[in-house]
Write a structure and sequence with these properties.
The complex is a heterodimer.
Chain A: H1 6-9, E1 10-18, E2 21-27, E3 34-35, E4 39-46, E5 49-50, E6 56-60, E7 63-66, E8 77-78, E9 83-89, E10 98-106, E11 116-124
Chain B: E1 9-14, H1 19-23, H2 29-38, E2 44-48, H3 49-52, H4 61-73, E3 77-82, H5 97-114, E4 118-121, H6 127-132, H7 134-140, E5 143-148, H8 157-169, E6 177-178, H9 189-197, H10 202-211, H11 218-231, H12 236-243, E7 267-271, H13 285-294, E8 299-305, H14 316-333
Parallel strand pairs in B: 1-2, 1-8, 2-3, 3-4, 4-5, 5-6, 7-8
Helix pairs in contact in B: 10-11, 11-12, 13-14
The chains are: A mainly beta, B alpha/beta.
Chain lengths: 131, 334
């Protein structure tokens, strides 16, 4: 089931195919800035196929982090107005559209025990040459 | 006493109410301040530090100066800065009281730099952490208080722990911030309608409405709801969307706040919806506000709309409606 942030979680205008795979623009599904230590990419699929965590990096504040490094980053903050970029190193057919599905979990640190689950889907469209 | 009186209960707004247009990048921080003045929903302005201020708890001299200019320009008053006790910032363990105090300290200094006299803290910081901060808040002339938010009541164990510490320390800089979601009479129709639209079955909604107002503590009622929802083989996501309401709203009688009235330093005027006559549909403001006004509360109440959880609306009209309701009640008390 969607929540009220599902519509903004994935930013199509900030997502594109790249030489390495796909870049996804992601908005923080919460009302305030949070440290990366409480951000977790729970699942990410392209055309229904899961992308291994080791093939994904998260870019924010001009830096790139492996997903399994996030839990330790208590000092690195995702400001609520900024877009992060998930970079997927995965082979995709560049001349076709691709369906991406993301589940992002947050652990709001002032509510110990709460898991805030946000799911969203979007289509990454192939860059077509103007006729 | 009137809404314009410099003493007693004064009205205001937290920019948290406008989370939707801010998050959507439709309104900047400065534009939201201007909106508070334009809509006449001041004079109090409350901010969530980690929402409104990039880099918080660091606050640059330039930002602080600009904020003070904006308050002067629009004839607004900084009412409270909401700070966060991020006890679980490290996954797998909670902050110690010393770590919690060290985490709150720069946020309190930020409040003083911006001209706030009150900070909203949270029960995720134990009483022992705040006790360590008493010399700091006394030096900075800041009053600090945790928000008593649903499912807590004035006699819940975490609140009692603070009340015992307050009695021992006896500092005028220590207090409480009630959130009126803790004095609700039912669950908000707009949230239930949003769940209906997303396919949550009527039977499950009825179950939540049956259990929520009953006797006992909120955790026990939430557990009963979860147990009976599972027995009905409800979709876990649908059940979770309702079980969260047991910690967003709870039914403490308005008169119960009298017990801590002398320690109330600020109020979160939580609200969701209005009926055709302008009354809040789930929180009985006509009963709650007289308790605070007759009880001698002196401070600000921020209008706090939590619509970003269930709506895409800006919050502007809702906050105006809330102010209209509260002005009417205050005037009727005279």
């Amino acid at each position: 089931m969607e929540n009220n942030f599902s519509h903004s979680l994935l930013s199509e205008s900030e997502s594109r195919m790249s030489p390495d795979g796909i870049e996804l623009g992601v908005r923080l599904p919460w009302y305030r800035a949070l440290p990366l230590s409480v951000v977790e990419v729970a699942s990410l699929t392209v055309d229904g196929r899961p992308v291994p965590t080791s093939d994904i990096c998260f870019m924010i504040n001009g830096k790139s982090f492996a997903l399994d490094a996030l839990a330790d980053l208590t000092e690195e903050v995702w400001y609520v107005l900024d877009s992060g970029i998930l970079t997927l190193h995965t082979a995709v057919e560049p001349r076709a559209d691709h369906e991406v599905a993301l589940q992002l979990n947050l652990y709001p640190p002032y509510i110990p025990g709460l898991v805030w689950v946000t799911k969203a889907r979007c289509t990454i469209r192939t860059a077509r040459e103007a006729a | 006493m009137s809404a314009a009186s410099p003493f007693g209960l004064r009205l205001g707004t937290t920019l948290f109410s406008f989370t939707n247009p801010f998050h959507a990048r439709q309104y900047s921080f400065e534009q939201l301040i201007a909106k508070v003045a334009e809509l006449n929903v001041g004079p109090g302005v409350e901010l969530v530090g980690f929402q409104s201020i990039r880099g918080f708890p660091a606050v640059s001299d330039a930002f602080a100066e600009r904020f003070r200019e904006l308050m002067y320009q629009y004839k607004l008053t900084p009412s409270a800065l909401s700070i966060n006790a991020d006890a679980a910032i490290r996954r797998g363990r909670l902050q110690t009281p010393a770590e919690s105090a060290a985490y709150l300290e720069p946020q309190i200094r930020a409040a003083a730099k911006l001209g706030f006299r009150v900070v909203r803290s949270q029960f995720a910081a134990p009483a022992e952490a705040v006790e360590r901060l008493v010399p700091l808040v006394e030096k900075l002339a800041i009053r600090i208080g945790p928000e008593i938010h649903a499912p807590l009541s004035v006699n819940s164990p975490p609140v009692i722990a603070y009340r015992e510490m307050y009695a021992r320390v006896n500092s005028p800089n220590l207090g409480f911030i009630p959130d009126f979601g803790a004095s609700a009479r039912t669950l908000p129709a707009s949230y239930l309608n949003m769940l209906r639209e997303r396919g949550v079955p009527e039977q499950l909604l009825a179950l939540a409405l049956e259990i929520w107002p009953g006797p006992g503590d909120s955790a026990g009622k939430r557990d009963e709801f979860n147990r009976r929802a599972a027995a009905m083989r409800a979709d876990p996501a649908a059940a979770s969307s309702l079980s969260v309401m047991f910690s967003m709203l709870s039914p403490q009688p308005p008169e119960a706040w009298q017990e801590i009235m002398h320690q109330v330093i600020h109020i979160h005027g939580k609200f969701y919806d209005f009926d055709a006559s302008g009354s809040e549909t789930s929180i009985p403001y006509e009963s709650i506000l007289p308790v605070f006004i007759k009880g001698g509360f002196n401070g600000f109440m921020s209008s706090e709309w939590e619509g970003h959880i269930f709506s895409q609306a800006s919050g502007f009209e809702y906050v105006q409606q809330h102010h209209a309701l509260c002005r009417r009640i205050i005037q009727n008390i005279g």
